[in-house]
Amino acid sequence: KMWGDKAVTTKKSQADSDKGKRFREGKYAMFIHWGLFSQFANKWNGKTYYGIGEWMMDKNMANLTTAEYAPIAKEFNPVDFNAKAIVQLAKNAGMKYIIVTAKHHDGFAMYDSKASDFNIVKATPFKRDPMKELAKACAEAGMGFGFYYSHNQDWTTPYGTVFNTKDNLDPKSFESYFRHKCLPQVEEITSNYGPIELVWFDTPGDMKKEYIEELVAVVRKNQPNAFVSGRAGHGLGDYNTLGDMEIPLSNVDGLWEAVDVSNDAWGYAWYDNNWKDPKEILRRLISTVARGGTYMLNIGPDGRGNVPHQQQKTLLAVGEWLKRYPDAIYQAEASPWKHALPWGDITKKKNKLSLSVYNWPNTGKLYIPGLQTAIKTSRLLTGKNTIPLKHYTEQGWTVLDIPFAPGDPLVSIIELELSGEARVDPS
Ligand code: H79
Q1: Which pick of 4, 192, 236, 252 has the fewest CB atoms within 10 Å?
Q2: 266 in ligand 1 pocket by Cβ < 6 Å?
Q3: 354 plus 288 within the same structural domain
Q4: Is the entire prediction scored with pTM above 0.90?
Q5: In this predicted model, what pLDDT tens digit does every residue of 375-414 receive, in sequence order?
Q6: Which residues contact 69 (CB under 8 A, 6 or more apart)?
Q7: Which of left, alpha, beta for 46 (phi over 0: left; psi -120 to 50: alpha)?
Q8: Ligand 1 mean position to 55 CA, how many Å?
Q9: Whose CA is nearest to atom 23 of ligand 1?
Q10: Which residue stretches belong to region Disordered (predicted)?
Q11: Which atom of ligand 1 is nearest to the CA of 104?
Q12: Are 265 and 355 members of one domain?
């Protein structure tokens, strides 16, 4: 009994200190949109539908009924899926946790679900539980792991099509879907995959608060350390998620996250090669952290389970950069300037500022407005060595004499050690 009491106490204090730690300090996560929709790759009956592939059923896309959509499960056999390789990719990319679609709006469970036969183990020739494999690979690699779960929208539920628009929401069928599928599935994903980082609910629409409270209670019960996404609805999450692909221009208070895509959409689309290059991804990551947030970047494996090659290359290039300048991102805080500067952006760690120079000035001078705290040291990092920079003030502006060549081929980092926390005169 005593031992039991003690164990509970330890677990609780552990929970308080660890809760959301990877979210708060890691700052960079991998989002994975992978599901039955990946098998369509935005194509149906020979026609390509340009848009977000996980919305193939939508009337603005291929406009499919469940009877048309569901049978593709028989062709979904992602034999190239390699959980270890994906986790290694995330690790080399410098990401701290992975959030993967356990079930998207199409209602198809990507794991072994007892609550619904419309799942990858029961309905496909693949028969494996890729989420089990991913959870295990994450645990082995020290990578955080968590699930996306579409709690409100479920378009193929046998209890009726639940689009949850005002026009066709039927409260009885929603109640049935909630009791027989949604709630049991959230029990499953929070019970059967070890400790998880967070549950990423999406698109609450006008779902009733009582439903969301029940779902959040399940997460709290089974995963006391896990975060719940702001898109659970009714303010019941642990943090805020901005709009899809939104990176704010001014600092945002509180705990929040930006979610972004590597190309034009989430789920794999055969034609979508509009990849952001490493510098653009870096700018979006740094800018998010500089505004005070955490950045989650999506990948979309294809119907065979492969991560597109170009996507991997880009993630790895960003990962190499993060190895050179970890202090600019990990555990870093928002810019005291509260918005970007003409040449780039600033993140801070205690008395240290990391200046990320996106646009290297060709004048030999870098200007910093309004800094009130004295500079102890200023240096350009190159990943290998550091180059001391001369600093002085000119009409109230801080000026750094910089070399004509940037320190880094992607984004250069100048580090300032201050005599105290940065104070900035907003004028
Ligand atoms: O999972 C990803 C999206 O599928 C999901 N959230 C991210 C993380 C999401 N749910 N809703 N939306 C995104 C916005 C939906 C936009 C739409 Fe359309 C506009 C759906 C129907 C009209 C554009 C046109 C996309 C499909 C047709």
Answers
A1: 4
A2: yes
A3: no
A4: yes
A5: 999 999 998 899 999 999 999 899 999 999 999 999 999 9
A6: 36, 56, 57, 106, 155, 156
A7: left
A8: 7
A9: 51
A10: 1-18
A11: 1
A12: no
